Amino acid sequence: MTTPQHTQTPLPAPTAPTAPATPAPRLPGITRNGRPLTSIPTAAVASTAGAAHPRRPHEGPSVEPRAQRPTPTTPPGHDWTGLAERVLAGTPAGRDDALRILRSHDDDILELMAGAYRIRRRFHGRSVKLNMLINAQSGRCAEDCAYCSQSIYATAPVPEYQLVDEQTIVEGARHAHAQQAGTYCMVMSGRRASRRDVDRIASAARRIREEMPEMKLCACLGLIDDAKAEVLADSGVERFNHNVNTAPRYHDRIVTTHTYRDRVETIESVRRAGISPCSGIICGLGEDDDDLAEVALELRRLEADSVPINFLIPQEGTPLAGRRLLTPLRCLKIVAMFRYLLPGREIRLAGGRELNLGQLQPLALFAANSVFLGDYLTSEGQTMDADRQMIDELGFVVEQDAHAS
Ligand code: SF4
């Protein structure tokens, strides 16, 4: 029940990592991009790392897409500046605006993004937040999320290991800190973490807080109740990620082993504990425009402070293998729609951004103000140098740099 960077292409097993072209010093269990991902030390890996697991007989979700590639229907020349000004004046964009954005004419893309940037600039200036994660437990998940290679129902070979030790989590934080990541996210596969696992995460969080007090800590541990959320809050975890992933009415097409309501209850527990809720989507699952508008409004209602936008990478071995419904322009319109509807929130470009936005990726930062750096849960993203270069060349500044200047 973790962030949907699970949608990425699996990497080789941790016991046989691919050597980088130019060997660089690495911490144990840290990938090229600095995340403790596939190269978790063998001792920390429970068993069957990287082995393909048999897909269990299971009815599973019905993954027929509701939508094929949509056609723009909003006439060109729409007044996107006017919409942005209206949002900035305090009138929230609504469902009809969302649909107009998603169906906007391709000729309008620069005006649409310029309006999104007006809003972004008001709330976030030119700063970009950097986030890094540790895949602290991988694979063997009994849930049947159709996009996820870590499900036991998927046949994709992914690293499989139980929760890494506390020291590995702390070292991952040191590495993230060295990369100027403002937020370090500790992610576990699985429906929910045990109390023992939550205690280990909390203990690591205390050490990280003491050593790197400026680092914001996020946990992503599946479903959670009030008691466990309070343990995390007491340890200094400030944010908890639990994506709604898709619209309530589309949710059961993607997963059958838990409900949309389960997800919402977790977000509510997190908020009750005083932790900032982080919740976002995976687009490209087969949802239609109404679903996307609905999920944006849902995230507004749920008061998600931070909204990761993931773009499906359809993996072999999952029910969504071969599904390519997104185009780069479509992705831009989705990111813009989230900015118009959630003007002050942290909108983050997350898993699949490289593949799905392609050469348009830098443009998306005119609407989004946050990125996951480098690698995702089970695949490598673009290098951190490339991300840094992209941010610099756009004239944006990493948030810590902005604070320093
Ligand atoms: S299958 Fe398990 S690990 Fe994958 S997204 Fe669903 S809950 Fe998370």
TrEMBL record:
<feature type="binding site">
    <location>
        <position position="278"/>
    </location>
    <ligand>
        <name>[2Fe-2S] cluster</name>
    </ligand>
</feature>
<dbReference type="Pfam" id="PF04055">
    <property type="entry name" value="Radical_SAM"/>
</dbReference>
<dbReference type="InterPro" id="IPR058240">
    <property type="entry name" value="rSAM_sf"/>
</dbReference>
<feature type="binding site">
    <location>
        <position position="145"/>
    </location>
    <ligand>
        <name>[4Fe-4S] cluster</name>
    </ligand>
</feature>
<keyword id="KW-0808">Transferase</keyword>
<keyword id="KW-0949">S-adenosyl-L-methionine</keyword>
<dbReference type="GO" id="GO:0051537">
    <property type="term" value="F:2 iron, 2 sulfur cluster binding"/>
</dbReference>
<keyword id="KW-0001">2Fe-2S</keyword>
<keyword id="KW-0093">Biotin biosynthesis</keyword>
<dbReference type="InterPro" id="IPR013785">
    <property type="entry name" value="Aldolase_TIM"/>
</dbReference>
<feature type="binding site">
    <location>
        <position position="218"/>
    </location>
    <ligand>
        <name>[2Fe-2S] cluster</name>
    </ligand>
</feature>
<comment type="pathway">
    <text>Cofactor biosynthesis; biotin biosynthesis; biotin from 7,8-diaminononanoate: step 2/2.</text>
</comment>
<feature type="binding site">
    <location>
        <position position="185"/>
    </location>
    <ligand>
        <name>[2Fe-2S] cluster</name>
    </ligand>
</feature>
<keyword id="KW-0408">Iron</keyword>
<keyword id="KW-0479">Metal-binding</keyword>
<comment type="similarity">
    <text>Belongs to the radical SAM superfamily. Biotin synthase family.</text>
</comment>
<keyword id="KW-0411">Iron-sulfur</keyword>
<comment type="subunit">
    <text>Homodimer.</text>
</comment>
<dbReference type="GO" id="GO:0051539">
    <property type="term" value="F:4 iron, 4 sulfur cluster binding"/>
</dbReference>
<dbReference type="InterPro" id="IPR002684">
    <property type="entry name" value="Biotin_synth/BioAB"/>
</dbReference>
<feature type="compositionally biased region" description="Low complexity">
    <location>
        <begin position="43"/>
        <end position="52"/>
    </location>
</feature>
<keyword id="KW-0004">4Fe-4S</keyword>
<dbReference type="GO" id="GO:0009102">
    <property type="term" value="P:biotin biosynthetic process"/>
</dbReference>
<feature type="domain" description="Radical SAM core">
    <location>
        <begin position="126"/>
        <end position="353"/>
    </location>
</feature>
<protein>
    <recommendedName>
        <fullName>Biotin synthase</fullName>
        <ecNumber>2.8.1.6</ecNumber>
    </recommendedName>
</protein>
<dbReference type="GO" id="GO:0004076">
    <property type="term" value="F:biotin synthase activity"/>
</dbReference>
<feature type="region of interest" description="Disordered">
    <location>
        <begin position="1"/>
        <end position="81"/>
    </location>
</feature>
<dbReference type="Pfam" id="PF06968">
    <property type="entry name" value="BATS"/>
</dbReference>
<feature type="compositionally biased region" description="Pro residues">
    <location>
        <begin position="11"/>
        <end position="26"/>
    </location>
</feature>
<feature type="binding site">
    <location>
        <position position="348"/>
    </location>
    <ligand>
        <name>[2Fe-2S] cluster</name>
    </ligand>
</feature>
<dbReference type="GO" id="GO:0005506">
    <property type="term" value="F:iron ion binding"/>
</dbReference>
<feature type="compositionally biased region" description="Low complexity">
    <location>
        <begin position="1"/>
        <end position="10"/>
    </location>
</feature>
<dbReference type="InterPro" id="IPR010722">
    <property type="entry name" value="BATS_dom"/>
</dbReference>
<comment type="function">
    <text>Catalyzes the conversion of dethiobiotin (DTB) to biotin by the insertion of a sulfur atom into dethiobiotin via a radical-based mechanism.</text>
</comment>
<feature type="binding site">
    <location>
        <position position="141"/>
    </location>
    <ligand>
        <name>[4Fe-4S] cluster</name>
    </ligand>
</feature>
<dbReference type="InterPro" id="IPR007197">
    <property type="entry name" value="rSAM"/>
</dbReference>
<feature type="binding site">
    <location>
        <position position="148"/>
    </location>
    <ligand>
        <name>[4Fe-4S] cluster</name>
    </ligand>
</feature>
<dbReference type="InterPro" id="IPR006638">
    <property type="entry name" value="Elp3/MiaA/NifB-like_rSAM"/>
</dbReference>
